[in-house]
Design brief:
By secondary structure, the protein is α/β, with parallel strands linked by helices. 45% of the residues lie in helices and 14% in strands. Strand 9, helix 10 and strand 10 form a beta-alpha-beta unit. Helix 19 packs across helix 22 and helix 22 packs antiparallel against helix 23. The chain binds phosphoenolpyruvate and magnesium ion (MG). Its cofactor is Mg(2+). Its main location: cytoplasm. It is an enzyme of class 2 (transferase).
């Protein structure tokens, strides 16, 4: 690639990064198909198990050095290397004469395919598994471990097909200026760790690995634009704008509010207590979406009442006097749980037994969770609200509200993420205490576009006027019934769209902690009337791009934030 070119991906960690490209290529070649060992199966097995143990120990040592979130990720990888079922399939293959390196490669391959087929969070763990495999194959074939240079010189932009936690865990802003990957989504480890490190990152950037090593690139982790060989003036301009933006964001503090004083509580989306420090540091006023299924993922059995109680209590304790909205288990489709398999074959899991449907089918799981929640709220000053995912009808909303009342839970709401619930919101509102709109699934179902498919990204765009209409219908119905209506899907994290959502009638916004400062700053720069005009202009547009452009003309304060 020569001359100045611009590639475009998804910005997942805001900020500007500039430096020469370091290409992380798959440095460990696949062991030849059909490779055989020298006949001593026992010796080969011992060699493989020693290699897997060496890899596990190395990952753990890196984790201890890194600490925090990275340590948890690396420990999980070490567990993959020590997995007994994996060892079993390696042993069997070696027994049949397969060389150790090939046996390892094939055994990991089986797991990888299963994870990739599961989709969602699990599919995004496939890169972690590949990395463990490559490390073990490298040890067995006498090659250096794959990885990233130690640093010491000018910070580089790390470009890869995908990044494994072991590549990124020991990096810092001093070593790496930005991450760019061709694969990955907003919930991949590249994204999570980049945000935790404060390193700008762009994922799903097609063509990135085609950039020559050493080429200087400018990465915008907010817009997702990656420019090769940028003129010096452009780099300076981008850096200055970023510094100014950081200063403005740091200056906006306090509760969420429009310029004319309409309160819009800004809440955090969390997956568990580990996300609390970032939420508190970003000034979250409470929790708008606690995705409790993280407590249930990757387990053979549901967590017991005590374990759940402890996790919920920790979250409530973090927000004395604040509001904490906990979503009941959202199992199925992109969040499959080993101990809650669907009752039969499901050709379309996203349209199958999931969310509230699954919860109803397993009353003991539901009762345990609601009991643990009620106990956690008891004697706590935080205001606990509980909501159900994937509600489609009034009967389901009534059923859930009644189940919460029976469990002694004072506030029961529903997510609006199925179009039928949005269209009939006026009928559903009296049955519950609040709505929270899940724009990720609402877009998936409104446009019949699988949210896991990158190729359908344009239909998943939350600026689509049809989606804005559904949000407007739901928010208006809630407000007329005197109920609150939040948004907790990814749409709330876009500062421009956040203003439009307020204009559509939404009363609170919940997002990943990293997005809170920019949304807070965007709201303080616009009045409720300006938000209303922006919402109207966006709904009158004929496409997502037109809606975005029309809203921007009504929200001039965003220019000073370089958004
Ligand atoms: C949503 O669907 O918008 C949502 C917030 O829920 P999840 O992303 O967990 O499905
Ligand atoms: Mg959802």
């Amino acid at each position: 690639m020569d001359g100045t070119t611009a590639l475009s991906g998804t910005g997942v960690s805001p900020g500007i990064g500039y430096g020469p490209v370091h290409l992380l290529v798959a440095e460990v070649p696949e062991p030849p198909v059909g490779a055989r060992h020298d006949g001593d199966a026992e010796a080969e097995r011992a060699r493989v198990h020693a290699a897997l143990e060496q890899v596990a120990a190395d990952l753990e040592a890196r984790g201890e050095k890194a600490g925090g979130e990275a340590q948890a990720v690396l420990s999980a990888q070490a567990m993959m290397a020590r997995d007994p079922a994996l060892a079993e399939s390696v042993n069997t293959a070696i027994g049949a004469g397969t060389a150790g390196a090939r046996a390892v490669y094939d055994a990991f391959g089986g797991y990888r395919d299963a994870l990739a087929a599961a989709g969602g969070y699990l599919a995004e763990r496939a890169a972690d598994l590949d990395d463990v495999r490559d490390r073990a194959v490298a040890v067995l074939t006498g090659q250096p471990m794959p990885g990233v240079p130690e640093g010491g010189g000018e910070p580089f932009v790390l470009v890869a097909r995908d990044l494994a936690p072991a590549d990124t865990a020991l990096l810092s802003r001093e070593v790496v200026a930005a991450f760019v990957t061709e694969e990955g989504g907003p919930t991949s480890h590249t994204a999570i760790l980049a945000r935790a490190l404060g390193v700008p990152a762009v994922v799903a950037c097609a063509g990135a690995t085609g950039i020559k090593a050493g080429t200087p690139v400018l990465v915008d982790g907010a817009t997702g634009i990656v420019r090769t060989d940028p003129p010096a003036g452009e780099v300076d301009g981008a850096r200055k704008a970023d510094e100014a933006r950081q200063a403005v964001l740091a200056a906006a503090t306090g509760p969420g509010m429009t310029a004319d004083g309409r309160p819009v509580p800004l809440l955090a989306n969390i997956g568990g207590p580990a996300d609390l420090p970032a939420a508190l540091a970003a000034g979250a006023e409470g929790v708008g979406l606690y995705r409790t299924e993280f407590l249930f993922l990757d387990r053979a059995q549901a967590p017991g009442e005590e374990e759940q109680y402890a996790a919920y209590r920790e979250v409530l304790d973090a927000f004395p006097g604040g509001r904490v909205i906990v979503r009941t288990l959202d199992a199925g489709a992109d969040k499959p749980l080993a101990f809650l398999p669907p009752p039969g074959e499901e050709p379309n899991p996203a349209l199958g037994e999931r969310g509230l449907r699954m919860f109803r089918a397993h009353p003991q799981v539901m009762e345990t969770q609601l009991r643990a929640l009620a106990r956690a709220a008891d004697g706590n000053t935080a205001r606990l609200a509980v909501m159900a995912p994937m509600v489609a009808t009034r009967e389901e909303a009534e059923w859930f509200a009644q189940a919460c009342r029976t469990a002694g839970l004072p506030e029961a709401g529903i997510m609006i993420e199925v179009p039928s619930a949005a269209l009939r919101a006026a009928d559903l509102a009296p049955a519950v205490d609040f709505f929270s709109i899940g724009t990720n699934d609402l877009a998936q179902y409104a446009f019949a576009a699988d949210r896991q498919l990158g190729s359908l990204g344009a239909l998943q765009d939350p600026w689509q006027p049809a989606l804005l209409d559904l949000i407007h219908t739901a928010a208006t119905a809630a407000v007329s019934a005197g109920k609150g209506c939040g948004v907790c899907g990814e749409a709330a994290a876009d500062p421009l769209l956040a203003c439009v959502l307020v204009g559509l009638g939404v009363t609170s916004l919940s997002m990943g902690a990293a997005s809170l400062p920019a949304v807070r700053a965007a709201l303080t720069r616009h009045t409720a009337d300006q938000c209303g005009l922006a919402a109207q202009a966006a709904r009158e547009a004929g496409s997502a791009d037109e809606a975005r452009a029309a809203a921007r003309t009504q929200l001039p304060g965003l220019a000073s934030l370089a958004m």
